[in-house]
Amino acid sequence: MKRIIYGFFILKVFLSGAFAQPDIDIVRKHGEYIDSLLNTVNIPRQDIETGILYNRAIPIAALQRFKQTDTISRGYFLQAALELRNAAYDTRQQRETKDLRRIANKYTYRDNLTPIGILFSEFTHIDTLAKEKGFIEFNGNGKPQFTRQLKEDGLVNKKVFLATSLCRKRELNSHVRFILLEELMTGNRIDEIMHIQVDFGDGIGFRNIKPGEIIEINYAKQGEKTISVIAITNDGNSFKSTSIVNVREDDDLIWGEYGQIPPEHQKIEIEADISYASPDGYNFPGKGELTYLIHDIENGLQKPVLIVNGFDPEDDIDDEELFFKYLNNDTLDGKYKFADELHADGYDIVILNFQPWYSNDMDEMIWVDFLQRNAFVVVEAINVLNDSLADNNSNEELVIVGASMGGLTSRYALSYMEQNEMNHNTRMWISLDSPQEGANIPIGLQYFIAIFSLISEDIEQKFEKYLKNPAAKQMLLDYWSTGDYPEPHEYRDYWFNDLESMEFPAQPRNITISNGSLNGTTLHQTTGEKALELEIKCSWNFFHLGMGKIWTTESYGEEIRVTFIEVSALILPIFFEGYAIGLEDSYSLDGSPGGYRKTFKQITESPMGDYTLNWDLYIEDHSFIPTKSSLAYSGSNPDLSEDLSGRNLVGTGETPFDNYWGLTGGNMEHATLFDSYLMFWLLREINCEPYYIVRPINFDRYITACNVHVLNNVSVKSGVKLTISAENVVIHGAFETEDDARLVIKNP
């Protein structure tokens, strides 16, 4: 149900937290409302001589307060470009920020160039002291109105010049190739620039540059560098803009004891041999990067464990981050160094990272691609590793660990190879807290991000990368823009129908790790709780941006408001309310047992320009991968908080995995190995270490292990059923069954 009232918007959501995309453009409505106020005092758009009335935008960048001595960033540049376009009556000289990002990404990722963007605009704004000077008043109903003095004394013209690197990478190498592009020059005064000079902070000073010219810079030292750009206009005036870049020291020897292969082979880019025709109409192969940590440099790759990275839309978790934060965490007193243990056992570690790349087919950046296209990159990685094993005369088989989304892409890859009679040579596949049945981002949080993305460039980019990419649409159980009907995004159905047609890989031993509780311990003790509250204050003019609140979902069909947003910078406030009904037969999706993410906390770290953000954070985390999803649970009880600890799900057939691990009494952060018993259990599985049976079996048991040894004389007592599921069963003594006892050995 949707209702739109001027200045008031309500969106109600029914069933499973899915809701309709809001049919409202708050930026346009704000501009129209400002225009209507100006018309009452006879100020038509023709009287705005610059063609841009900045107050028609929601001024997060606060350009009316900007000083040319201020140091700017890429984010500020793009926010300013967004607002000037929103404020312009004629947008032809104001490039869209999505085009600026697309062009900058093209040169960064396709051509390995660092592009420089330039914005030069003149705009009009209402005097920041308009209220104090009497240019604005409030009527008896509290609504604002302009006075006639505004036309004569209250409009101010200002020019602003901004220039910075538009490369989204946080750090640059010591050797950088900069380029100035006309495509990245925007603003209604850009044609007035006659000359451009740049000091790249390399000690040489200013030099003249022209559009299209590539400037190669070699920085002698790492650290922060100040880039200064001067524009000289045709009237002889000059404008200066400064920004900061961080230069890191080039170092290929970061892996220490894990050895070093030649740098040109330590990291290699791969491209799938198999193209994927996605439902958006594009057909091309995916790409990735392999990082090798070789145990024995002289003999090369011999005993590989392939780590397949997960969902990483901003390329924050590269190979180094994955290694030092997840595989070999240095911050936890050295207790959870999984990579060290693998290295001690003679394994090579190979990391597959789905890093962003530029697609010439789509003329767009690929942040997180369709799962199927990434799966074919995993196929290519498997083939590359097996070719290396053959070249090095190794008879070892692969062990594959799929972290989070990597558990889906690696599952698909292995099943595809089996169905198409391709030898994957894999003895074990490990799913690490993967969304086998779907993932969850709280629907209230999705809505919150979607609304604020309309006015904040930073949040808009997060929205584009985290929620609007194909993989998110395929994995999320509920998606914010599904329309008027409570159903997942169509890409999700497309993916799961494809995945289920392949079933699970049959040849390797399949095990899964759940970071969620097995005994039904929920993440949140109560449901429908306020997660966070935001108040946005602005002290430098009469605008006040507003506030927002998010609640977690309810359980067992209970309805609750999950989002409330007030955008007060529009002078006449607009309100947003989103409602959701909890899963009919289950505990709250947001608070269910599962591997959690601290997304509520992360959103509080998003900047909002020059405004003061007052956050009240009540709940940091939410269930991201419900326990039952990571187990690919197929039981009859739909309640996500069901206690699963009292039975062996392999034995009951409620999970397709050969073995699984989960916590009792708590939940862990998503895709982590920070539990001593978990590491011990996982290493035993990878090494196929024996599970010993030494005592008589007095009650029904289902033993799942890679390798089972029966020692001495072991008897299965009367009336007892013992089932052993293992790759290898060795009986050293006598194995006896009494009357009415049953012994079942699978996969001997």
Structural description of this entry:
The chain is of the alpha/beta class and 748 residues long. It is 23% helix and 30% strand. It contains 18 helices and 40 strands. The chain has an eight-stranded mixed sheet with strand order 14-17-19-18-22-23-24-32, sandwiched between helices. A five-stranded mixed sheet has the order 3-13-12-9-10. Strands 28-27-26-25-30 form a five-stranded antiparallel sheet, covered by helices on one side. It starts with a strand and ends with a strand.
Concise synopsis of the structure shown:
The chain is α/β, with parallel strands linked by helices. The chain is built from 18 helices and 40 strands.
Q: Return the average pLDDT rounded to an integer.
A: 87
Distance between the termini: 58 Å
Uncertain residue segments:
1-24
Computed Rg: 30 Å
Total helical elements: 18
Helix content class: 10-25%
Q: What portion of residues belong to β-strands? A: 25-35%
User: Taking strands numbered 1, 2, ... along the chain, how are they ordered across the largest sheet?
Assistant: 14-17-19-18-22-23-24-32
Strand segment tally: 40
Report the major sheet. 8 strands, mixed
* Class by alpha and beta content: alpha/beta
Form type? globular
Properties at a glance:
748 residues, alpha/beta, 8-stranded mixed β-sheet, 5-stranded mixed β-sheet, globular, disordered N terminus
Strand and helix layout:
Elements: E1 2-5, E2 8-11, H1 26-39, E3 71-72, H2 74-87, H3 97-110, E4 114-126, H4 130-133, E5 136-138, E6 144-146, H5 149-153, E7 155-165, E8 175-186, E9 193-199, E10 207-209, E11 214-218, E12 223-233, E13 238-247, H6 263-266, E14 267-271, E15 276-277, E16 283-284, E17 287-293, E18 304-308, H7 319-327, H8 338-344, E19 348-353, E20 357-359, E21 364-366, H9 371-391, E22 398-403, H10 405-419, E23 426-432, H11 443-452, H12 457-467, H13 470-475, H14 490-500, E24 509-517, E25 530-537, E26 546-551, E27 559-567, E28 574-581, E29 594-597, H15 599-603, E30 612-617, E31 622-626, H16 627-630, H17 649-652, E32 659-663, H18 676-686, E33 690-693, E34 701-704, E35 707-710, E36 714-716, E37 721-725, E38 728-731, E39 735-737, E40 742-746
